[in-house]
Each structure stands twice: as C-alpha cells, then as structure tokens.
Here is the input.
Amino acid sequence: MKRRIVLWGSVGFIVGGCWVILSWAIPISTEPILWSLARLTCPIVPVSMALHFGVKWYWVVLTNVPAYALVGLAVEALMQLRNSFQAVGR
Here is the structure.
C-alpha cells in the first residue's frame, strides 16, 4: 500500500510539472478549457483564485504531491475496505 501511495504522489509531481512546462510554453489565461483542467488537477489553483494571490511555479508541484498522495490514501483505504467486505461475504 505504501508503494501505491508513493506512486500517487509521483503522479501528482508529474501532473504539476506538466502544468508548469505548459504554462511556460503557452499562455493559459487565453484558454478556458485549460483553466478548467488546471482547477481539476491542481488543488492550489482554485484556492489561489478564491484568495486572490499568485502562485509560484514550485508551489504548484509542491502542493500536488501531498494532495495526490492523500487522494491515493483514500482510494487505497476504500479498496482495502471493499476487499475485506468481499472476503467476509464469501
């Protein structure tokens, strides 16, 4: 389970890194579809927009790792709970 949570955190790092590289390549402010995707995949974007503060590129990556790890922890716990219920039902 620990490996899977580390993998979820790694995915968060990769997603954050991709957003940083994409923001350097094209201006995201002109594309509403990209803003919608950024709001879904980067938890700091809606928070920074609600509180009206700018975010440096490294904060995007640093906040994605623990956010994705927490999501992974919840998913893995639910999967273990489902497996235990299935084992009891047999």
User: Anything to note?
Assistant: Residues 57-89 form the longest helix (33 residues). The radius of gyration is 16 Å. Residues 2-82 form one domain.
